């Protein structure tokens, strides 16, 4: 009879351990699911932002005026570099005085 009681107690202990283990696994699965939903949302947001950026780039790059604007910007940069070189050599002040006469 004592052996039967020990077996019953061991079975109950094993059942309790199994229930606790199962509950812990369910909690972990819920947490993993929540994390996956968060990651999925972030990926979706990132993809949407990337898509919008690509659309903006395509609108700019396929604009007929884009090439002309790039040429004008390059010309402006070249002019500013020449002015900076004149200023560095001290020639810019003399040119400005000569132009103001």
Report what the structure shows.
- The chain is mainly α.
- The chain has two domains: 1-62; 64-101.
- The chain is 95% helix and 0% strand.
- The protein is built from three helices and no strands.
- The chain has helices at residues 2-61, 64-89, 91-100.
- The longest helix is centred in the N-terminal third of the chain and has 60 residues, at 2-61.
- It is rod-shaped and about 125 Å long.
- The relative contact order is 0.04.
- The model has no long low-confidence stretch (mean pLDDT 88).
Architecture blueprint of SSEs:
Blueprint: H1 2-61, H2 64-89, H3 91-100
Instruction: Give the ordered list of helices and strands.
Output: HHH
N-to-C terminal Cα separation, in Å? 123 Å
Percentage of residues assigned to helices:
over 70%
Quaternary structure type: single chain
Overall spatial form: rod-shaped
Number of domains: 2
Counting DSSP E segments of at least 2 residues, the number of strands comes to 0
Round the mean pLDDT to the nearest integer and report it.
88
Radius of gyration (CA) equals: 37 Å
Find the structural class using helix and strand composition: mainly alpha
Strand content: under 5%
Q: Summarize the main sheet.
A: none
Low-confidence stretches: none
How many helices does DSSP assign?
3
């Amino acid at each position: 009879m004592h052996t039967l009681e020990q077996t019953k107690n061991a079975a109950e202990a094993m059942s309790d351990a199994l229930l606790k283990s199962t509950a812990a696994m369910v909690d972990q699965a819920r947490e993993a699911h929540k994390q996956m939903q968060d990651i999925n949302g972030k990926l979706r947001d990132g993809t949407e932002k990337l898509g919008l950026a690509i659309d903006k780039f395509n609108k700019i790059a396929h604009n007929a005026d884009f090439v002309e604007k790039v040429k004008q910007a390059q010309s402006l940069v070249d002019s500013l570099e020449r002015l900076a070189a004149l200023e560095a050599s001290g020639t810019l002040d003399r040119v400005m005085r000569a132009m103001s006469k």
